[in-house]
Specification:
The chain is α+β, with helices and mostly antiparallel strands. The chain has 2 domains: 158 residues, no CATH class; 288 residues, no CATH class. Helices cover 40% and strands 8% of the residues. A hairpin with an 8-residue loop joins strand 5 and strand 6. Helix 2 packs antiparallel against helix 5, helix 3 runs antiparallel to helix 4 and helix 5 runs antiparallel to helix 7.
């Protein structure tokens, strides 16, 4: 080709990326893929925390994450087919609706959970996928030409999305992450107190605060510190039906490695309606979630609570076995019950109010002479509907009641759900118990409660049969000389004992 020809008929320059065009459908596909992947990353990151609290929720998070990744991959692989768009919209739309229901109408089995940054971001990304699909599935819109995405703008947007997703799941982002039970997770009961009911014997923050401002992390396990949210206490009593099924209860309290299988326990409960109904009316536990925890930031309060919990641990060490408790004047009042253990009471201590060094009840992993201590329980008489205000420093230990238990020879043989006729058949009589308030503290190595040091029930205390000798420390073999599995460096009793 000559120079003249070249000058007269110059080749058109290739369009720059900034000036290129594409269809609206292509742009929406890129946005939807990024949003679906971002939501998947959030679910993957929060799945371990939810698995530690309730297997069902953790599995849900993992399944959702993989489906969202699959939806993004399908959009990339099959660009000219509607099916990937329909699948992406279905997956993200269903998850969005589950989240929305958990925050508005108690679906599925929730208590109006609050909205935090991670779950809000994931829900927003899911909504973007659905909206993109609605537009992309309309050919008249999807085929429209639009300016191509500038590589610089695309990179900035991608980095911004990655930053938002990373921030939402970072442990240091405590305010919103810990302030919400999670995306799609059953929430916590923040309104279980009766109207006018108070429980304030030391003061506590009503709102969650950053870990750096807290001095109370050493009073619980790291898993609980990550999962707990502030608020009113759960209703650990038998006044209203529970919000879980027998199957969900069994997933928490049945450990096939140390006892019967889940199927065997469920079969037994179906054949024994008294025990079954005791579970479903809250006699053992009223929730399968960690208890709320109001953060402490006053170092003087934290020091005092650390002293109290260390003293409680030393008190428990004074009565390592049932034989020691009985020698000190304690008598069996319940057999071993999953979640709350076997209770031994000292009637001579009743009526003296809260006395940390002389708890009215001791808790054991069985009823044999060699059964091991697992915790302590205070039992205070007080009339009315307001729980006692006395107790440990702070606002995190709470009392509950069991009214109408079936008693025979001073021992509980039936829960509050037992009718007069059923109780009589068991050879017992119904007890009132309306003025008897009970609290728990779990300060035995190996028996730390994943639901909080003061939780009404402890998931470490699983179903047992035969009641043969069990290793101390809730089957771990740990003794009172071992350290508690509380968070290290958190100003708690563990650090105090080491110092």
């Amino acid at each position: 080709m000559s120079d003249e020809t070249s000058t007269a008929e110059p080749a058109a320059p290739a369009p720059s990326p900034a000036s290129s065009t594409s269809t609206l459908g292509d742009t929406l596909r890129t946005v939807a893929m990024a949003a679906s992947v971002g939501a998947a990353v959030i679910h993957f990151a929060l799945a371990p925390e939810h698995l530690s609290e309730r297997t069902r929720d953790g599995v849900f998070f993992l399944v959702v994450a993989w489906l969202q990744l699959a939806a993004a991959a399908a959009l990339y692989r099959w660009r000219n087919r509607p099916e990937p768009w329909l699948g992406a919209a279905a997956v993200n739309g269903v998850v969005f609706l589950v989240w929305l229901g958990s925050r508005t109408i108690d679906v599925p089995a929730t208590d109006h959970a609050s909205i935090g940054f991670p779950d809000g971001l994931a829900a927003g990304l899911e909504a973007i996928v659905v909206l993109a699909a609605v537009v992309a599935l309309r050919p008249s819109f999807a085929s429209r030409a639009v300016p191509g995405i500038n590589p610089v703008a695309f990179g900035v947007a991608g980095l911004a999305l990655a930053g938002l997703v990373s921030t939402s799941v970072a442990p240091g982002f405590a305010d919103d992450r810990h302030g919400s039970p999670g995306h799609g997770e059953p929430g916590h009961d923040m309104a279980s107190m009766a109207p006018g009911e108070t429980h304030d014997h030391g003061g506590a923050n009503a709102a969650q605060v950053a870990d750096a401002e807290r001095c109370d992390l050493g009073f619980n396990t790291p898993a609980f510190n990550d999962a707990a949210v502030p608020g009113m206490p759960h209703a650990h009593d038998d006044a209203t039906p529970v919000d879980f099924t027998l199957e969900e209860w069994a997933e928490v309290f049945v450990d096939p490695d140390s006892g019967p299988s889940i199927e065997q326990v469920l079969g037994y409960l179906e054949e024994n309606p008294v025990q079954r109904d005791a579970i479903l009316t809250g006699s053992m536990t009223h929730t399968l979630d960690p208890d709320p925890w109001n953060a402490l930031t006053d170092q003087a309060q934290c020091d005092q609570l650390a002293d109290e919990l260390l003293l409680a641990k030393n008190v428990a060490a004074t009565y390592p076995t049932v034989a020691d408790a009985e020698a000190a004047g304690y008598h069996k009042v319940t057999g071993y019950v999953p979640g709350i253990a076997a209770h031994y009471i000292n009637y001579g201590l009743l009526g003296d109010g809260f006395d940390l060094e002389h708890p009215e009840m001791l808790l054991y992993d069985g009823t044999e002479p060699g059964s091991h201590v697992v915790g302590l329980s205070d039992y205070i008489f007080q009339d009315g509907e307001t729980e006692p205000a006395e107790g440990y420093t702070g606002d995190n230990d709470h009392y509950h009641r069991h009214t109408g238990l079936c008693m025979r020879d001073g021992v509980v043989v039936g829960g509050s759900n037992t009718t007069e006729e059923q109780c009589a058949e068991l050879g017992g009589e119904k007890a009132d118990g309306a003025n008897g308030w009970m609290s728990h503290v779990w300060v035995v190595p190996g028996c730390e409660s994943a639901w909080g040091v003061f939780s009404g029930a402890n998931p470490s205390l699983v179903v047992r049969t035969g009641m043969g000798q069990w290793e101390s420390g809730c089957g771990t073999g740990l003794t009172m000389d071992d350290p508690l599995a509380f968070e290290e460096g958190g100003n708690g009793p563990q650090e105090l004992a080491a110092g």
